[in-house]
Design goal:
16% helix; 28% strand; alpha+beta; single chain; Chalcone isomerase; 178 residues; binds heme C; 5 strands
Length: 178
């Protein structure tokens, strides 16, 4: 594997005290929590069938009490399809790149923490021509294990709003590690 060409961020991506999530983020959070499911306004994005066989980029656990715990408390696994792997390694995210954010409940038992139920599955699909308003990325999310209950209602605007902090890496937080 190519070595990671850029420096690791010094803190977790969620720890950004210099920039609090903007108020527009919270309606999204509420929608995720309530499981709202109106139709997406943008080009429909396909459920990323088979993503569990893709490359695992990273895992992060977000604990209760974090400013984003509602709705992001739990275990985060990030997966990338082959073109997206190149992007997480510092290359270009070519059209067709797909990234998956798999959010699972964290279940603590004794001194161990295990994966619980899936809370939601979020994806970003790169297609410059199709999603010019959101950095060339299409954003979508599905509630729990559902493949039909879509959560994004604003064409991805509120997802993109938070991801803009990562403009220097094409709006993607996760970096490849050796
Ligand atoms: C409040 C900020 C915030 C909002 C809102 C947000 N994200 Fe993210 N997203 C993150 C962070 C931080 C990560 C890094 C993952 C981790 O560390 O767990 C991430 C990671 C991702 C990833 C994996 C690729 C990457 O950038 O690392 C996808 C896919 C993703 N988010 C999709 C979405 C979708 C779809 C929405 C809207 C439904 C959304 N996100 C809304 C902060 C946000």
């Amino acid at each position: 594997m190519p070595r990671q060409p850029h420096a690791q961020s010094p803190s977790t991506p969620f720890h950004r005290p210099q920039r609090r999530p903007t108020p527009q983020v919270w309606p999204l959070a509420a929608a995720l929590v309530l499981g709202a499911s109106p139709l997406a306004a943008q080009d429909p994005i396909d459920y990323p069938e088979g993503y569990r066989g893709w490359a695992h980029v990273k895992t992060l656990t977000l604990h209760a009490g974090h400013v984003l715990a509602d709705p992001f408390e739990g275990i985060h696994h990030v997966y990338a399809n082959p073109p997206a792997v190149t992007g997480t390694q510092g290359g270009e995210f070519a059209d067709g790149s797909v990234l998956v954010f798999d959010l699972l409940a964290a279940v603590s038992e004794g001194e161990a923490t295990a994966e619980g139920k899936r809370k939601l599955l979020a994806v970003m699909v790169k297609h410059r021509g199709r999603y010019p308003a959101t950095g060339g990325w299409g954003f979508e999310a599905w509630a729990g294990d559902s493949r039909s209950e879509r959560l994004v209602t604003d064409g991805g605007a509120s997802c993109f709003d938070c991801h803009t902090s990562q403009a220097q890496s094409d709006y993607v937080f996760s970096r490849w590690r050796d």
